[in-house]
Amino acid sequence: MSTSRKPFVGGNWKMNLHGSEVAELANGLTALPLDASKVDVAVFPAFPYLAQVAAVLKSTPIKVGAQNFYSQANGAFTGEVSLSMLKDIGCEVVLVGHSERRHVLGETDEMINAKVLAALDAGFEVILCVGEKIEQREAGKTHQINMAQLEYGLAGVNADQMARITIAYEPVWAIGTGKTATPEDAQEAHDRIRRCLNFGFDWGEDIGNAVRIQYGGSMKPSNAVDLLSQTDIDGGLIGGASLKASDFMAIVHAAEQSQA
Ligand code: PGA
Predict the structure, then answer these.
(1) Rounded to two decimals, what is the model's pTM?
(2) How far is CA 185 from CA 65, 77, 97, 135, 172, in A?
(3) Is the distance from the beta carbon of residue 219 to the nearest atom of ligand 1 less than 6 Å?
(4) What is the pLDDT of residues 9-28, one digit of tens each?
(5) Is the C-beta atom of 208 inside 6 A of ligand 1?
């Protein structure tokens, strides 16, 4: 990666782990060394454990984030969680547009854009996920899909707010499947995403060059070094491998090293 962008590694725990497992993983993360000047780290536990994990990680540089929230401030939205509630319990980062929310839970581009704007207004950092399905890749539509998801997702975001946006490129076919994009394929997608951020919006080229673009999709200790050595890969969004403290921290350390 470029030395001008500090790598950012996120651990997306999804709908996994219960009581004692959550405590064990959070405690495991506190025990491992981390050079916060070289890498940013955040974890995204399930809602019932967010406050508990935030309390355990309070004394570390690891931020705690939410996998989901609703874009409205409050009111009659049964089952939803607001940004101010998340702020109350110490959350600073949110995921938006994850493929499981797009394709399993049915979130539309309009909902995703509303969430991005609401989270930025509320002062959060946002990881906006984009990525193509296998049939879209096979039809040669990878870049078209990524560009469209960026354009919808970031509509109305201003240049100052872009400092709080990270993009996660997550090819849907690589998520949770054990299949990883080759470092070259991932680099090509990241390069196209960066060019879209530079030239597809009216923020100016400097902004796109400063935005961190994580790779997500079966990143693990054995492939992290090769992926993170690519020029435009600035960290990772990790699912499966984030559920084991030693694996997650191995990826975090690979990201630290990638800056050298
Ligand atoms: P994975 O998930 O690492 O298990 O493929 C990545 C993600 O969904 O963010």
Answers:
(1) 0.96
(2) 29, 41, 21, 16, 14
(3) yes
(4) 999 999 999 999 999 999 99
(5) no
